[in-house]
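Task card 7
Instruction: Convert sequence to structure tokens.
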Amino acid sequence: MTAAVVILNWNGKHWLEQFLPSVIAHTPAPHLIYVADNGSTDDSIAFVCARFPSVRILENGENLGFPGGYNKALAQIAPETADLFVLLNSDVEVSQGWIEPMIQLFKADQSIAAAQPKILSHTEKEKFEYAGAAGGYIDRLGYPFCRGRVMDHCEEDKGQYDAPQAVFWATGAAMFIRTDLYRSFKGLDADFFAHMEEIDLCWRLQRAGYQIYCQPKSIVYHVGGGTLQSSSPFKTLLNFRNGLVMLFKNYPSWALFCLLPIRLILDGIAGLRFLLSGEPKLFTAVIKAHFQVWAQLPSIFR
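Output:
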């Protein structure tokens, strides 16, 4: 079983310079490494070609966001090239032997569609990292959280999650997914642009009877926030908008009827908290997110 490790890049030369060597050092043949470029305006691609000639380049020509960029890039890889796609953020350092435990997991159970390694913080390596930690879950109101991370609190890794475990979603920072299923499920939803698209894909896979896993025998270290900072109004808009869109796509109608009023109230409270905390741009982002959802309802339902 072979893997195609695909790193999506947008003006990320500094991340590639820092972390691509670890990926090359710890990803042996026959696995392949690609950098998929989302229309970068820096010289990151020229840098990769000169410094790391073994890395293959996939050029999208424009910034299509996280899901659109991956969809276009992965479509350029021939189906027979790899059994697994690995969606790997550019700000991730991988550890020795990170590939093999993941492959063994997929070999052992054909019902596993996607999986992630243990995600630790690159800056505090004894702690889990926000974006994925030891596998993602979702509560009854549709809010995501992780083993090892609830809200903004990340636990110290003391081996408490060191057994492979079925989870609800695998992080897009380091997602392994069967290539045939990625293609047959039409990949990530490009309308999301960024944030929540991996949760949506994992939800769709589970609705079809597949499983999502975390394999903690594989470890990677993630910086996090490398593209959009947590204080970014655009990131806030995407999180609130995409969270609602994901519910419309995956929850049954009767559940939405009960859930939406609660979500609207809670989102309103979150918006007011931003306003009272002196962050009016984040408050405006929450309002914009809701207007975009309601304006896009016909296309969402289609």
